[in-house]
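new request in #modeling-help
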Amino acid sequence: MIIRIVKYVLSDILRGRVAIAYTLFLLAAGFGLFNLGGDVDKGLVSILSVVLMIVPLTSLVFATIHYYNSYEFIELLSAQPIRRHTLLLGQYLGVAAALGTAFFVGVGLPILLYARTSVGGCILAAGLLLTLVFVAIAFLGAVSTRDKARGMGVALLLWLFFALLFDGILLFIVFTFQDYPMEKAAIGLVALNPIDLARTFVLLQMDVSALMGMTGAVMRDFLGSGAGIAYTLGVLMAWISVPLTLALRAFKRKDL
Amino acid sequence: MIAATGISKSFGRVRALDEFTVKMPAGRAFSLIGPNGSGKTTFLKCLLGTVIPDRGTLTLDGHDLLASPEPRGRIGYMPQIGRYPDNLRVGQIFEMLTEIRDAGGGAPRRDTELIEAFDIEKIAQKPMRTLSGGTRQKVSACVAFLFNPDVLVLDEPTAGLDPVSVEILKEKVLAERKRGKLILLTSHILSDLDEITTDVLFLIEGRLRFSRPLDELRAESGEEKLGRLIARIMLEEAHSPSLDPAP
């Protein structure tokens, strides 16, 4: 039943201008960054930075706009013999699949041509996971906010928090308590931000300790690369399932 | 037959429906009438499953409409504002809804009369975003009738349609009523509904004030036009709220 919704949501979005623009932007960034430095590793690090900024922003904003623009259609669909759960899950999977496809083409193509390495594969995986995470967060925000303008505000604030403010706060905490052993606490704190989790996940694959930042280095020391990767992946999964479950539960009792 | 008993719904502090009880047998066309905010839309939305009532029961021929989505397969809905995914083609909208209905165990028999009357085939390949408001309303009407439902919920069906299309739609509603369908209507342009309506449901402050056959109301008041009749009832309500409710 869900596939019947996903199919059409996907087909609608992929034919839209935004999906095409997103793909082209990622393609341009990917090819540009690989050709700029000459060094493949440098190119990968630059691409990672772009992915960690752009993927959450696009996922949050696009999924939020999609939900509000589809409101009347979702209302019409909810008057059909279909469960609310199926309806929203179908919308979620459709949006995530569309953005995931655009990302996979836009970043995957340059990586396939220039850097067929495990790090390249990890960047693709991280971008797809971040898409799933932030579309889920966007759906939770949009389902619980009736007003479109406020919903957009919530989406942008969330991006600001996760992409920029969180690292500042983390740095502040680490500096304030620098007399205490903060390593283990840092591993815990990083779990609170999916973007940091994704960054750590990729950097654990790389051999550039200078770029790993404190949490990455600490995680390698304390957990080892294997356990570190398992930890970041596990917590990222929770970042998908928890907001999605909350959104589905809120939508079930929602008055449209 | 649709039977609602004791339906209550509050939005925050606002009571949209207050112990709303009504029985609507098949083969009749009910016009929901009442001042703005009297609960007309809320009641229709409860029926369609888009609003979940706080209390009360709602059944279609004995099947509980609030417990599971399946009985909704027997209801066709034409929304007031039809907004569809921009990039889907007209034909895809019909395909998508057909797939959902078929999976939900809907009636296998299709009713394509309106699709033919509105000549939708000609625009089947057009993306939804290129359609005018009136054409989108035609699509909405076709969707409502397509699955040959036992109950038709039409929210402002004539708004935005050109006069020719209004006549086509009215003919269709009349024909379906005569085939034993139950029709529920709301409209601000009351004259449009004169010929279709058989009964008037009058709502005030979330309660059913009365449900009476239109002929009876006409005979009593001497008013021919539904619009003028309703205006008079509303005025009387405003001046003497203690007016005895009809049996």
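bot summary: Chain B is about 30% helix and 25% strand.
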